Amino acid sequence: MNILSVENLEVVYNDVVLVLKGLSIKVEQGSITALLGSNGAGKSTTLKSISGLLSTEDGEVTEGSVFFNGQPIHRLWPEKIVRLGIFQVMEGRRIFEDLSVEENLKCGGFIRPRSEYIPSRELVYEYFPRLRERRKQLAGYLSGGEQQMLAIGRALMAKPKLLLLDEPSLGLAPLLVEEIFEIIKRVNREEGVTILLVEQNARAALSISSHGYILENGRIVLDGRAESLLNNPDVQEFYLGIGKTGEKRSYRDVKHYRRRKRWLG
Fold it and tell me: Which CATH superfamily hosts domain 1-85+160-226?
């Protein structure tokens, strides 16, 4: 059963810039789905189309639809979408730097009954023990990895049904990326939260996902089971940096038209 369906979506910024061009994706309930692509492909715009945040950047859905549990949501205000159970963790963390860790978590749970606050906070501390240690500390003084943990923890306070994660590995050291992705996998498995994961780190994203989509210039150019994408020669060459003979490849060595010819030709 699909919890999310995005159908033939077109998005325009400032009435002139066409960013998404007939994009369609489906997210199965209880799954982790990866949306991959380079900078400017339209990944963040896709998430904002789902969470209702396009209007904050003069963006608009001009064609197509977004359905959540069969209900159209692309015309709803962001606060109504959050109350339906969709929560987006923005690229770059976007925590409240002048508030403490605990105060940030309280902000995440504002739509939930007060009786749920302490159990939800303790659940977050179980996933992220370092946040418990720093619960009274101002969030602006946390490390990058700890801020990412806080951003995800704040989202969990809202008890989302669908969690939209935008570049959770951005700016983090490899060991921290591994830790964050392991926790994302646990949250999906143990809490039953469906996750749509936007990433440039294709290997990390596909390693925890069941299905993946590859986005280029506002269009889906390839999709399939995560395992098959990891083994796909084109994905290996253009997103994992591995040439056909197994050698490491630089993206700068790859001609753009070859990718377009294979995937769109």
Answer: P-loop containing nucleotide triphosphate hydrolases (3.40.50.300)
